[in-house]
Amino acid sequence: MRKEFSAVIERLAKEDESLVFITGDLGYNALENVRDVMGPRFINAGVAEQNMVGVAAGMAYKGYKVFCYSIAPFAVYRCLEQFRNDVCLHNLPVFLVGNGGGYGYGIMGSTHHAIEDLACLSGLQNVKTWIPAFADEVETVVETMVAEGRPAYLRLGAGPKTPEGAQAIGSFRKVRSSEAPKGTVVALGPVAANVLKALESSEQLGSQFDVYTALNLPPDLPTELVQQWGSTGNLLVVEEHVSIGGLAQQLSVRLLENGASFRNFTSLAAQGYPDGLYGDQSYHQRQSGLDAANIQARLEAFLTN
């Protein structure tokens, strides 16, 4: 998604001189096009994320719209206080961009993983978090962030293109339909590709489950989705994020408030480091049961219960 991100920033920067881009000494071989177009509006703050966000808040207060870029854990955890106090409480147009959300940086270990980032940010005042599942969603997301002009966080990963026929409903997108669904799957971010792989590997499952992706936290859940999901009786939530403060927890509150009930409600979420070891992203997904094989097994269990 980083390629799509840099392309839309380059285009918007040519159209809007109020845009500023600050990087925390990252983005090599990815953001040179942005640097060349923006000139002095492209700033390398160095390894000083707290200062980066403080400077961004000051510039936003003076009328600029500022992107702050780093890998996800550095963009979120190192400057959480500055983003909360300087940006969110003043409702300023500063946009954190974290690359490699979830276990994206794999073998580099826990210091480079962001599996609690959405819990940290989605509860702050005035902020909206954006978690595209597909690479071609990034352009529209960035355009919307700039247009809304409010505090935001964009979590980037490695995702395929959106399946044909996807339909936006509130902060969700329906990406796979069945004629008479016996269950619903809601995925957060690029791990949606594992869900689609699980369904494509089984003709039986593929014809019996609807699949949605969630684009925002906190979620905007339309009443029609509450009714549709509740009517199937089975709901599986899949996210590369810890369960506390994640999609399943936030979604369950909205569903309960609207009177939905399910025969089976299952949450698959990041489990941290069960064996104390590090590996690539797929290794950690398997450790957490976020791989296609385990997703398929959970959906098969729905049909037998």
Short characterization:
With 305 residues, the protein is an alpha/beta fold. 39% of the residues lie in helices and 20% in strands. The chain has 13 helices and 13 strands.
Helix content: 25-40%
- What is the radius of gyration? 19 Å
So what's the CATH class of the largest domain?
A: Alpha Beta
Largest β-sheet summary: 7 strands, mixed
- Rounded mean pLDDT is 96
Number of helices, where a helix is a run of at least 4 consecutive DSSP H or I residues: 13
Tally of DSSP β-strands: 13
Shape: globular
Strand order in space, largest sheet: 2-1-3-4-6-5-11
Strand content: 15-25%
> Which structural class fits the helix and strand makeup?
alpha/beta
Description:
- This protein is an alpha/beta fold and 305 residues long.
- It has two domains: 155 residues, Rossmann fold, CATH 3.40.50.970; 138 residues, Rossmann fold (3-Layer(aba) Sandwich), CATH 3.40.50.
- The protein is built from 13 helices and 13 strands.
- The strands form two sheets. Strands 2-1-3-4-6-5-11 form a seven-stranded mixed sheet. A six-stranded mixed sheet has the order 7-8-10-9-12-13, sandwiched between helices.
- Helix 8 packs across helix 13.
- It is globular and about 60 Å long.
- The mean pLDDT is 96.
